[in-house]
Amino acid sequence: MKRLLRVLIVEDAPDDAQLIVIQLEQGGFDVHFQRVDSAQALTGALESAPWDVIICDYVMPGFSGLKALQILKERGSDVPFLMISGKVGEEAAAAAIRAGADDFVLKGNLARLVPAVQRSIAEAALRQQSRRHEQELKEKLEFIQVLIDTLPTPIFYNDPNGLYLGCNKAFEEQIGMNRDENINKSIYEILPPDLAALYSRGEESAENGVGPRSFEGTITCADGERRDMIFYSATFKNSGSSSGGVVGALLDISERKQAELKLRYLSSHDILTGIYNRAYFDEELERLSKGRKFPVSIVMVDVDRLKEVNDQQGHAAGDELLRHAAEVLKNAFRREDVVARVGGDEFAALLPNTDEATLREAMERLQAQLAQNNQEHAPLPLSLSIGAATAHDGEELMASWRLADQRMYRQKKGRKNSNAGSRQHQLVA
């Protein structure tokens, strides 16, 4: 069965047009054709019907093959165009090919016509297929761009050479960059230094074949604010399984980090006084018992008359008294010492690398801070019952804690018995 071939012949000589048709029919085509010989007729024919191929004479009275080819190109048509001529030089044939003709056939060698038509139609089909694929790819990329633009997570991607390819709106807004102005620039030209370094770490891991990786870091955003981020990176592949580049995504974890810090703080600190709580004190006591910071001294402190202040002046005054006690203890001890509220009116301090002589110096600082506090807060004087002891190894630590507690309670009991609030003369055995 012959293949249908719709041919538009641009030719001023009807006999020559008929020879072309005969040659095509002998080549196995069922030829449907129309002959035109002017620009106006060519335009009308192009508008009236679809054509599989155009065969055009190079020279015609008042018209030419090059002019016909120009009309076709201006319409954006990709119909195969074959130029044909009775006698023409190589220079003219080359000019026709440069202008966009698919082939050039001499009328004296029409045996080349059928193969030339077949090849031109096949190449046109490949071009159409390529354009369809390009259009499909373009539509897919547009869909993907719309999709990632709807995501609140900043996303960007670059090629295997580290050149930037694109990003989503969230990334543009966070980094303060225009995606179109930075295409094919190095990632180090368009990103803040801290983010570029973070991206480089992820890129290296991804290219080493370890798959998606994540790193935490802090970057400066477009508004100048420092934000905590998790950076995710992964390679993507081309159709040939070669590396197409690296995709990066940023997850803002600043609020989570702040919440974690707050929870960590609340889990280890007393809300009222701001110093460490009993749970943290117990953990440090356990850690020190297994460590090498001996001797370790322990100081136990009880706030005198707290119940009396609560009953007579209210709990707000009692809370203020507790805050004053915490401030006195913090100012009296070193930064490496652990000061904690371990009960309602009880405080404790762990002093690593502190022997009896150093402990006595600490007690003197404590009394000095207490005296200064009472000068500054005369209407609400602070009285503390204090006991202390020193452990020289882990086995003595718990016993020393109990001993410090006993000494503190002996002082408190002595004050109650004397009703004078006098300081017990011996704090350290």
Automatic annotation (TrEMBL):
Domain Response regulatory: 6-122
SMART domains: GGDEF (SM00267), PAS (SM00091), REC (SM00448)
Domain GGDEF: 294-424
Enzyme kind, highest EC tier: transferase
Modified residues (4-aspartylphosphate): 57
One Pfam match: GGDEF
Known EC number: 2.7.7.65
Span of domain PAC: 213-265
Any one GO MF annotation of this record: diguanylate cyclase activity
Record-annotated PAS domain positions: 140-194
InterPro entries: Biofilm_reg_signaling, GGDEF_dom, PAS, PAS-assoc_C, PAS_fold, Sig_transdc_resp-reg_receiver
Keywords from the UniProt entry: Nucleotidyltransferase, Phosphoprotein, Transferase
Protein's name according to its UniProt entry: Diguanylate cyclase
Species, as recorded: Geomonas subterranea
